[in-house]
Amino acid sequence: MDILIYGVINSANLALMALGFTLVYGVSRLPNFAHGALYVLAGYICWLLLNRLGLPYVLAGALALALVAGVGGAMYQFILVRIRGMAISEIIASYAIGLAILEGLRWGGLKGGTFTLPSFLEGSVDIAGVSVDFQRILVVALGAVLVGLLYFFVNHTRLGLALKGMAQDERAALTLGIDSDRMAVVSMALGSLSAAIAALILLPLGSIVVEAGYHVLIMAVAVCIVGGLGSWTGALLAAFVIGFAQILTTAYLGAHFQVVVALLAIILTLILRPSGLFGKQKELEERV
Amino acid sequence: MAKAHESRRKERLDRGVKVRSDGVYAIASWREMAFLLGPRLLLIVGLLVMPLLLWPVPYWQKVLTIICIYSLLAIGFDFLAHYVGLVSLGGALFIGVGAYIAALLNTEMGLPLWATIPLATVLGGGVCTVLLWPCLPLRGVYFAIVSLMFPLLAARLIEAFDIFGGTDGIMGLDGFPNSWSEMYVLIICLLLALFALRRLVNEDVGLVFRGVKDNDQAVKASGINITTYKALGVFIASSLGCLGGACLAHIYMWAGISQFALDFSIIPIAATVVGGGGTLAGPVIGCLILVPISELLRDFGTLRIAVYALILMAFIVFKSEGLMSYGARKYNQFEHWVEI
Between the CA of residue A251 and those of A76, A94, A181, B157, what are the distances in Å? Predict the structure, then answer.
C-alpha cells in the first residue's frame, strides 16, 4: 500500500518538475537547459523575501513566481531569441545561463547552513494505514490542479490556442497572425512559472540546495524523453512510469539504485522506442 | 557599423598568396612561405618553448599541463560539435573514464605508465562510445541530454556504491619521472592531435562527417551508415578526452570523483566558443586564455564556473565566430570601405 501511495506522490513530483520543460520544448523547440536553475532560483528568491524582508509567505511566494516567470521571459527575449533555430547554440547558451545562475548561487547565496522553506500545512494523516503529511498530499493535489489548468489554458483560451498552433505548425501559425517570437517568450515565461510553482511546492519537503537544480533538470529531461519530447500526455504518463519504477527499486533493491532508474529509462526508451511513449508524429524526423 | 554609414560597405579581398591559385609558386617566395607557415609555426614553437620560458615559475608550468589537458578535450568537443554535429555537454565523462581506467590498470594490474596511458586512451574511447551509443541513431537534442547526464550520474554512482575507492578515489598511481616529461608528453600529444584532426577533416572521412552534420538524409541515401560514422566521431573525441584524463590521473597520482567535475565539461565548451568553433586551433587558443583566468579565480570557488558560463553566453550570442575566425579573416584578407 505504501508503495502505491508513495509512488503516486513521487510521480506527481516528477510531473511537476517536467511540466515546464516539456511546455517550452513543445512550443518553441528550445531545450531549456536552464530549467533546473530556474527551479532553484525560485526557491532562493522566496527564501530571501521571506527571511530577509520578512514578507508573509503568500506574498513572498507570489512575488517569487512573478519574478522567475519574468526572468524566464527576459532570458528568451533578450538572449535566446538571437540564436533561435541554431540547435547547438541554443543548447549551449541555455545551459550556460543555467550554470551561471546555479554556480552563482552556490558562490553568493546558498552557502553556510541549510535553507528551508516552511511547509504550507503542518501535520499528517493516515491513508489506509500509511502516514502521509499534508504537504505531500498538497503536492499531488496541486499537481493535478496545475495539469488541469494548463489543459484548460491550452485548449480553451486564445493565448493557449495560439501556443498550440505554433507547436503544431509554425508557418501556418505565422500566416494566421500569431507572432511566433512573442509566443516563444510567453511559453518560456510559462515554463519558468511552472518550474517556480514546482519549486515552491516541492522545496518545503527538503532544503534548497544547488544540486537540486541538476537533479531537476535530469529528471525533467528523463521524463520528457521517455514520454516523447514535447508531448504532454506522454510526459504525464512517463512521470508515473519513472515515479513508480523509482519507488519499486527503492523498496526491493535499495535506495542506491534509484539513481540508475532515470538513466536506464532513457537508454531503454532510446533503444526500443526513440520517439517516446507518445511522440508519434515526430518519429520520422528524429530517427535517421 | 552598417547603420552608421549606410552608403558604404566593407569589401574584403583575399590576400594574393600564390599557393591558393597554383602550388608551385609558394615555394619560390620566402615571403609567401613565411606568410603561410607563420601562424602554424607560432603555435608549434610557442607551445614547445613555453615550458622553458615558464621555468622560473613551476606553478605556471603546472597550469600549462592543465591547459594542454583542457585543449585536448576542447578540440575533441569542437570536432564533435562542428564536424559531426553532436554537442557533448559532458566532457567530464571522458576525463573521468580515462582517469579511472589508467588508475585501475596502474594500481590493480601493475602496468607501467607508458602502457596505461595509451591503453586508457583506446579503452576509454571504446567505453565512452558504448555508453553513448543508444542516442547516436537519433537526431536532435538527445545526445546533448544524455552526455550531460553521464558525468553527473557517474560521480553519484561511484559515491553510492562505493566502487573504485568510493569518495576517496584511487591513490598511489605512478607519477611521471619528472615535470619536463609530463609537459612535453602532453604538448606533443596535443600538437599531434590538433594537426591530425585538421588533416582528418579534409580527407574523405571528414567530408562524410560534415555530411552527417549538415544533411544526414543525403548521406544515408548514399548508402553510408550514419550511426557508424557518428560512433567513429565520438570514439575519436572521447579518446582525446581519455588521453587527457589518463595524463591527469598520473600527474596527480590519483583518480577520483572530482575528475567528473563540471569544470571539465564547461571549460572546453567555453574555450571552443571563445576561440572559434570549427577551426580546431581556436579551442587551443581559447584554453590558453580561459584556463589561466580559471587559475586566477581559483580563490573564488565556484564563481569561476559562473564567470565562464557568462563569457560563454556572451560570445555565443554576440560574437559567435570566435577569436580564431576573426583573426584568420584579418590575416588572410584585405578590408577596406567601398562607397556604394
Answer: 42, 36, 47, 18
The span from the CA of B83 to the CA of B197, in Å, is 11
Residue to test with chain A: of B78, B84, B317, most A Cβ within 10 A: B317
Tell me if B290 sits within 8 A of B330, measured CB to CB.
no
pTM: 0.84
- Cα of B4 to nearest chain A Cα, Å: 21
Query: Residue A266: inside a domain, yes or no?
Result: no
Residue B318: partners with Cβ closer than 8 Å, 6 or more residues away: A82
Closest CA to B182 of B99, B68, B268: B68
The total domain count for chain A is: 1
Q: Tell whether B156 is within 8 A of chain A (Cβ).
A: yes
Chain B residues near residue A262 by CB distance under 8 angstroms? 149
CA distance A261 to A246: 6
Instruction: Domain of residue A115: give its range.
Output: 2-206
Are the beta carbons of B146 and A107 separated by less than 8 Å? no
Domain contains B284? no
Residue B277 lies in a domain: no
- B157–A288: do the CB atoms touch at under 8 Å? no
Q: Give the pLDDT confidence of A141-161 residue by residue, as tens digits.
A: 888 888 888 888 888 888 888
ipTM: 0.78
B85 neighbors B213 (Cβ within 8 angstroms): yes
Which of B89, B142, B317 minimises the CB distance to A83?
B317
pLDDT at B94: 92
Q: Is B334 helix (H, G, I), strand (E, B) or coil?
A: strand
Residues of A in contact with B142 (CB under 8 A): 225, 270, 274, 286
Q: How many domains does chain B have?
A: 1
Let me know: does B154 contact B93? Beta carbons within 8 Å: yes
Looking at the partner chain, which of A100, A262, A263 has a beta carbon nearest the beta carbon of B306?
Answer: A100
Q: Mutation test of the interface with chain B: which of A24, A91, A92, choosing the one with the most B Cβ atoms within 10 A?
A: A92
Output the CA angle A90-A93-A96, nearest 5 degrees: 145
Q: B299 lies in a domain? A: no
Q: Which residues of chain B have pLDDT under 50?
A: 1-2
Residue A96 counted as domain residue:
yes
